[in-house]
């Protein structure tokens, strides 16, 4: 049975209650103070937005930008680019405006404003940087390998344009690295698309896709495998063709085998490729014999 003494002992001491109460009061105090600062900050921002003092707006837009508060800077710059159009201030505003979009991950708009800056303010020292950033925006928009790659191709074009225009720029090394990354992505996409045709049993399409890949990316790390797959695709296409089409298609296999061995005479795929080659010769000779009878 619970005794009164036990009940008394189980109650929290007064000192503990007092400390808990103080802690709650301090927490409440800090919440109220923080809320007050937030409300004050919002109120101040709204006043800046509503102000007709554009010098103040410009000053505050730059302050918000420097503080990394791009979402606050953008509405102000939206107004400033209209108000200061054609003025000497516009040069700086345009520069900030492009970077504000970039830092908000609005890369398409940022690319437009960076390129506009580089073509409008050609003599400005930042024109070179802005043309580079225009290209970098498209690089940022380049999608994953599985998706459509028009932005990757656009990025490569813009990066090459920058390199051609500023061949001695400090950004050239980074631009070349981005081009290499994009090219590798496009190579892989072309290679995997060709592989997919092969897996689907579309051997003619596979042979064409691998050949196109090799023409476009002759130095690809996948070139050895691609040349072997051309041999294999040609052979299976010939094997599955009607008799009157096989002669030409086995000859294509033989030709592609020779191209493969000229470049990769010590390939790990050599034995399998040679088997396909020998089968092609055997089948081709049989067709020729049958034609003579």
What does this structure look like?
The chain has 293 residues and is an all-alpha fold. The chain has a domain at 200-293: Tetratricopeptide repeat domain (Serine Threonine Protein Phosphatase 5, Tetratricopeptide repeat, Alpha Horseshoe). The chain contains 13 helices and no strands. It has helices spanning 4-10, 14-50, 54-66, 70-83, 90-103, 107-120, 127-141, 150-165, 172-199, 203-216, 223-239, 243-263, 270-292. Helix 11 packs parallel to helix 13. The longest helix is centred in the first third of the chain and has 37 residues, at 14-50. Mean pLDDT is 89; it is low at 1-11 and 28-40.
Search tags:
293 residues, disordered N terminus, mainly alpha, rod-shaped, 0% strand, Serine Threonine Protein Phosphatase 5, Tetratricopeptide repeat
- SS-derived structural category: mainly alpha
CATH homology superfamily of the domain at 200-293: Tetratricopeptide repeat domain
| CATH architect. name of the domain at 200-293 | Alpha Horseshoe
Radius of gyration: 34 Å
Tell me what portion of residues adopts beta-strand conformation.
under 5%
Would you give the CATH topology of the domain at 200-293? Serine Threonine Protein Phosphatase 5, Tetratricopeptide repeat
Instruction: Profile the largest sheet.
Output: none
How far apart the termini lie comes to 114 Å
Low-confidence stretches: 1-11, 28-40
Mean pLDDT: 89
Shape: rod-shaped
CATH class of the domain at 200-293: Mainly Alpha
How helix-rich are the residues, as a percent range?
over 70%
Could you spell the SSE succession in H and E letters?
A: HHHHHHHHHHHHH
The helix count comes to 13
């Amino acid at each position: 049975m619970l005794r009164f003494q036990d009940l008394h002992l189980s109650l929290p001491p007064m000192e503990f209650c007092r400390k808990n109460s103080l802690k709650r009061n301090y927490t409440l105090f800090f919440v109220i103070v923080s809320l007050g600062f937030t409300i004050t900050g919002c109120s101040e921002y709204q006043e800046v937005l509503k102000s007709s003092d554009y010098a103040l707006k410009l000053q505050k837009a730059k302050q918000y930008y420097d503080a990394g508060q791009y979402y606050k800077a953008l509405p102000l710059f939206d107004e400033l680019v209209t108000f200061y159009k054609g003025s000497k201030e516009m040069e700086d505003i345009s520069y900030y405006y492009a970077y504000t979009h970039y830092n908000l991950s609005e890369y398409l708009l940022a690319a437009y404003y960076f390129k506009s800056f580089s073509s409008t303010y050609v003599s400005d020292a930042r024109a070179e940087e802005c043309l580079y950033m225009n290209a970098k925006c498209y690089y940022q928009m380049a999608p994953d390998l599985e998706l459509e790659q028009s932005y990757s191709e656009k990025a490569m074009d813009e990066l090459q344009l920058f390199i051609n225009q500023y061949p001695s720029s400090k950004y050239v090394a980074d631009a070349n690295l981005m081009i290499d990354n994009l090219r590798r992505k496009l190579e892989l996409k072309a290679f995997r698309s060709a592989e997919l045709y092969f897996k689907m049993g579309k051997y003619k399409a596979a042979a064409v896709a691998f050949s196109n890949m090799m023409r476009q990316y002759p130095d690809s790390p996948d070139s050895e495998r691609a040349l072997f797959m051309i041999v294999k695709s040609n052979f299976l296409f010939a094997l599955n063709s009607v008799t009157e089409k096989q002669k030409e298609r086995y000859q294509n296999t033989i030709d592609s085998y020779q191209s493969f061995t000229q470049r990769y005479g010590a390939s790990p795929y050599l034995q399998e490729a040679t088997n396909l080659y020998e089968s092609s010769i055997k089948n081709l000779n049989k067709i020729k014999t049958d034609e003579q009878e």
